[in-house]
Specification:
The complex is a heterodimer. By secondary structure, chain A is α/β, with parallel strands linked by helices. Chain A has ten helices and ten strands. In chain A, α3 runs parallel beside α5 and α4 crosses α5. Chain A is globular and about 50 Å long. Chain A starts with a strand and ends with a helix. By secondary structure, chain B is mainly alpha-helical. Chain B contains 15 helices and two strands. In chain B, α3 packs across α11 and α9 packs across α11. The longest helix of chain B is centred in the first third of the chain and has 26 residues. Chain B starts with a helix and ends with a helix. Classes of the chains: A alpha/beta, B mainly alpha. Chains A and B meet through α2 and α3 of A and α9 and α10 of B. The complex binds adenosine-5'-diphosphate (ADP) and magnesium ion. The site of magnesium ion has 3 residues of chain A, from α1. The site of adenosine-5'-diphosphate (ADP) has 11 residues of chain A, from β2 and α1.
């Protein structure tokens, strides 16, 4: 059974159909890529899953149960954690404090010292233990993305939603990210829904790729298959996909 | 622990200072020093709400009025021990704060400021409506009055407890949830922070501290609770004190409280314009100058000084 699934999800903003009868699934222990040109509805899908947006019709299930009645602040308790495309940190707090907020749901009745240790371990895991005590504002963009990743991971999620984690990273950092995502899947047994424009990264790490265009599913399947799909190539005007082979 | 060492030393020194201070003061100045403690408690309260959760209130005088009337009424009708009226005021104003916090969930920024302003205007007028019970505009007095030495001891002890309480509330998970809400409601929600719970909790804690300050405020005015003591100016004064102290940090509250408690008195003796009605002008000028020089308040100086020391 799929860990997460959207079933015939539809959501409109005025005249724009941001999600048009979209059905997609994330199998447990896999990385699912979610791609599509700008405005395709990828971030909207994340906001629907985390209950920031309300679907007009269709359903979202996690672990087989509908989550459309779950309040937004309870989503992380179910085991779904996310990052944001444009980075939503707590700028006046330190990096460590940001991650400690991520541990909000796991820290009730837990000793502060233990919570701190787990936050610091998570910062080490994403490779930024050295900036723990710096203010989150003013860090390089790539580092901020890692803080968000740590803040999501510290809640011990089963499903991680990553919105363009490679945005603003250089070549080397993207390679590191690819390794890291595989580690999350293979060692920590996490499932990941990955929104990304970096085609090469998506095609390499994903077990399954889902393609949206103007809110509609235009392809869904293994990366090699999706890459060759004429509709996908057309949506991307050929350009971006070729470099990915 | 070692990170907290300078803070602990500072608190210990302050405690010793305030324990010894009354011996060096005249009776009048003891009363004045007690009023610093009263404002300190109110500023702590406003700081929890506005500084830590980012919800603006210009109505804290209303909660002070509720706390103050609690003390006066309980003492007047039931002869309740004055010290016991303080925790009672705490509980009652906590409840009032939560009640105000619930509708405030739908408001933010200027709209919340206006709504709390309306509270500051209307709540102190309520006693006029129930003047049989509350004494109307003439006010109601506690069954006994207290000396300035008593006031000094009780106010500063309460201030110390209030400071410790606030520090404990803010230092861990709850304080982080407050600040997370201030910084990003979306990210806080996604991290599992329920906005409604923490915003109303902040309102409750904040109002409770203001309520206790109101109780002491009434005791400091000969035990008399009167509507016009709790004018809008009082609310604004607390806001000025919180801004001078520095929002979102606890380390400036003493200076913020001293600023609003002592400056009006000091301004009156300013040469040329201070006397008669000039003291308000002097006070206003000081507020403007301080806000220009210290836009992040006294507490904002601490990181600045730390950076200087690192460079040196
Ligand atoms: N809160 C909103 N209000 C109005 N329109 C929105 C909102 N969120 C997304 N949209 C629109 O929905 C469409 C999909 O956006 P989005 O999901 O952000 O795309 P992307 O695939 O680039 O992440 C876009 O046309 C966008 O303008
Ligand atoms: Mg997007």
């Amino acid at each position: 059974m799929a860990l997460l699934s959207l079933q015939n999800a539809t959501l409109r903003f005025g005249g724009i159909v941001a999600l048009d009868d979209v059905s997609l699934a994330v199998e447990p222990g896999t990385i699912a890529g979610l791609i599509g040109p700008n405005g395709a509805g990828k971030t909207t899908a994340f906001n629907v899953i985390t209950r920031l947006y309300r679907l007009e019709s269709g359903d979202v299930t996690f672990d087989g149960r509908s989550i459309l009645r779950t309040p937004p602040s309870r989503i992380v308790r179910l085991g779904i954690a996310r990052t944001f495309q444009n980075v939503e940190l707590f700028p006046t707090m330190t990096v460590l404090e940001n991650v400690l907020v991520g541990a909000h749901t796991t820290s009730l009745f837990e000793r502060e010292a233990n919570v701190r240790r787990s936050a610091l371990e998570t910062l080490d895991l994403v490779g930024i233990g050295n900036v723990a005590h710096l203010p989150a504002a003013g860090l390089p963009f790539g580092t901020m993305k890692r803080v968000e990743m740590a803040r999501a991971l510290v809640s011990k999620p089963r499903l991680l939603l990553l919105d363009e984690p490679a945005g603003g990273l250089n070549h080397e950092e993207v390679e590191e990210l690819a390794l890291f995502l595989r580690r999350l899947r293979d060692e920590l047994k996490l499932s990941v829904l990955l929104v990304e424009h970096h085609m090469n990264l998506v095609m390499r790490v994903s077990d399954h790729v889902h393609v949206l265009n103007f809110g509609r599913t235009i392809a869904s399947g293994p990366p090699a298959e999706v890459q060759r799909d004429p509709k996908v190539i057309e949506a991307y005007l050929g350009g971006e996909l070729e470099g990915a082979a | 622990m070692r990170r907290n060492a300078p803070a602990l030393v500072a608190v210990a020194v302050a405690a010793l200072f305030f324990a010894l201070l009354p011996f060096g003061l005249s009776d009048y100045h003891r009363g004045l020093a007690a009023s610093v403690a009263v404002y300190l408690i109110a500023i702590l309260g406003l700081n929890v709400l506005t500084g830590y959760t980012g919800q603006i209130s210009i109505g804290h005088g209303a909660f002070m009025a509720i706390g103050g009337y609690t003390t006066a009424i309980m003492s007047h009708y039931h002869n309740t021990n004055l010290i016991l009226t303080l925790p009672l005021a705490f509980v009652i104003t906590f409840g009032c704060g939560v009640l105000v916090g619930l509708p405030a969930l739908r408001l933010s920024g200027v709209y919340l400021a206006l709504a709390t302003f309306a509270l500051a205007v209307s709540i102190p007028q309520l006693p006029l409506k129930f003047s049989k019970f509350t004494g109307g505009s003439a006010g109601i007095s506690a069954s006994k009055s207290v000396s300035n030495s008593w006031l000094y001891g009780v106010s500063w002890s309460t201030a110390a407890i209030a400071f410790l309480f606030t520090w404990l509330v803010l230092r861990g998970r709850t304080g982080r949830a407050f600040r997370a809400i201030r910084d990003s409601e979306v990210a806080a929600t996604s991290s599992g922070v329920t906005l409604a719970i923490y915003k109303t909790l902040a309102f409750g804690v904040s109002a409770a501290l203001a309520g206790v300050a109101g109780s002491l405020f009434v005791l400091a005015t000969n035990g008399f609770a009167q509507p016009n003591e709790f004018s809008v100016t009082l609310s604004l004064k607390i806001l000025v004190g919180a801004a001078v102290a520095g929002l979102g940090s606890l380390w400036g509250v003493l200076l913020g409280a001293a600023f609003i408690a002592l400056l009006p008195t000091l301004s009156a003796s300013a040469p040329l314009i201070g006397s008669a009605h000039g003291q308000d002008v002097v006070f206003g000028l000081f507020v403007i100058v301080v806000m220009i020089l210290l836009p992040t308040g006294v507490a904002g100086l601490i990181p600045r000084l730390r950076r200087l020391r690192v460079k040196a």
